[in-house]
Design goal:
This protein has about 230 residues and is α+β, with helices and mostly antiparallel strands. The protein has six helices and 13 strands. The strands form four sheets. The chain has a six-stranded antiparallel beta sheet, covered by helices on one side. A three-stranded antiparallel beta sheet has the order 9-11-12. The longest helix has 20 residues. It is globular, with a radius of gyration of 20 Å.
Length: about 230
């Protein structure tokens, strides 16, 4: 009798946006195509691409000390995009709540022969499904009242943690809320986070970041405040 085992081929991905063949064997330290370093900051191995649909960057799964984590890579070098990215990194390292992914901080990565850095953020990997996908899987059937109230309480507690640190999220929507297998909700994508300032509290206009259909009228007009989150 011959026992055959199918092994999953593990790859290391190159995050150089200009690399023509980013897939490498897992034991490689430098990309065989473009020569860029594969082990980020000497410790993070990029395993697979999770999403390249973000407006400002890509999201990857990385491995560190046999733990899977998430790596966000900013590919838009507009000063405002960099400012928001730094703010997201600051918020996720400051907040400590089961409904918020814990951040490990930023790192800067230079692809081979490039003078333009890639800004990277490492954070906890949240296992689960976002509520938009969850509802699609359920054929958009309504959830019952008890569950709706439980979810609202969870989200209110998460937002209380965010607001208590003088931040607000500004992009509450189903696709930014992950449902874990144990029923815990987690709020993700703090890329639009804003620090509460005297200008905002005084009714001054701020950056018009919002998702139509979820943002309240004042946010669509550029006057978002922390209370706007509860409308969403």
């Amino acid at each position: 009798t011959i026992n055959c085992q199918l092994s999953t081929k593990i790859m290391s991905l190159c995050i150089n946006p200009n690399c023509s063949q980013p897939e490498n064997q897992d034991q490689q330290l430098f990309c065989q195509s473009c020569g860029s370093e594969l082990l980020l900051a000497g410790r993070y191995q990029v395993m697979r691409l999770l999403s390249d649909k973000g407006g400002f960057g890509n999201t990857y799964e990385v491995s560190h000390n046999h733990q899977l984590k998430v790596l966000k890579v900013l590919t838009n070098n507009h000063p405002k995009a960099i400012e928001l990215f730094h703010k997201e990194a600051d918020v996720l390292t400051q907040l400590n709540h089961p409904g918020i992914p814990k951040g490990e901080g930023e790192l800067t990565y230079f692809p081979r022969n490039s003078q333009t850095p890639l800004h990277c953020l490492v954070m906890e990997k949240i296992e689960g499904m976002d509520l938009e996908e969850y509802q699609k899987k359920r054929n958009n059937q309504p959830i019952d009242q008890a569950l709706a109230i439980e979810w609202l309480l969870q989200l209110a507690n998460i937002l209380n943690e965010v607001h208590s640190h003088n931040f607000f999220h500004r992009d509450i929507k189903p696709s930014n809320i992950i449902l874990r297998a144990d029923g815990q909700l987690t709020l993700i994508d703090f890329g639009a986070v804003r620090q509460v300032t005297a200008t905002i509290l005084g009714g001054g206009q701020n950056t018009g970041i919002f998702t139509p259909g979820f943002a309240p009228p004042e946010q669509e007009k550029g006057y978002a405040v922390p209370q706007s989150e509860f409308y969403a």
